[in-house]
Amino acid sequence: MGKGRLEAFSDGVLAIIITIMVLEMKVPHDDSMEELVKIGPVFMSYVLSFVYIGIYWNNHHHLMHAAQKISGGAMWANNHLLFWLSLMPFASGWMGENHFTKWPVVVYGVILFMNSISYYILVLCLLKANGKGSTLAKALGSDLKGKISTAIYAVGIAAAFLHTWISLALYAVVAIIWLIPDRRIERTIEQG
């Protein structure tokens, strides 16, 4: 089964998610710095979420590039991932509007956690479709970075019950970890 439509659909959904997030930021009704500062938490939440969507787009692109085949299961796993990613604008907006209080930060963390789990499920489906000896399997290896990220999200969710800034710091750490490009797939394809 070809992967072009899956990639195009995913790119379109991710573009819409980013568009929805930016449209949720309301423009201040006057020109004072005080009004601009008031939307600071919404902007900070947007920046973190934008980075996450960018990370998923980048990794999804590399994943699809390395996969030679997709299956019906992989298509549903991809939709599962897109479902959780599509909740980012809601969680991001709620968190920013409420100045990073406990429950919005918890919900944001749960969505990050589920994004990670659903991405892992997509990877498993693609590995099954492409085989253990595939370029994709060689490139992914044990995916320690992904497993550590998922664990940090879980700790971040629990930390929100102590102090939300600990959670936000942990969520930002994962984003920083993934901003450093993961070159496993590129290297494997170049060597291939």
From TrEMBL:
This is DUF1211 domain-containing protein. Its main location: membrane. InterPro entries: TMEM175-like. Keywords: Ion channel, Ion transport, Membrane, Potassium, Potassium channel, Potassium transport, Transmembrane, Transmembrane helix, Transport. It is a multi-pass membrane protein. PANTHER family: ENDOSOMAL/LYSOSOMAL POTASSIUM CHANNEL TMEM175, ENDOSOMAL_LYSOSOMAL PROTON CHANNEL TMEM175. The keyword S-adenosyl-L-methionine does not apply. Belongs to the TMEM175 family. Pfam families: TMEM175. The chain crosses the membrane at residues 6-24, 36-57, 77-94, 106-131, 151-180. It catalyses: K(+)(in) = K(+)(out). It is found in: Membrane.
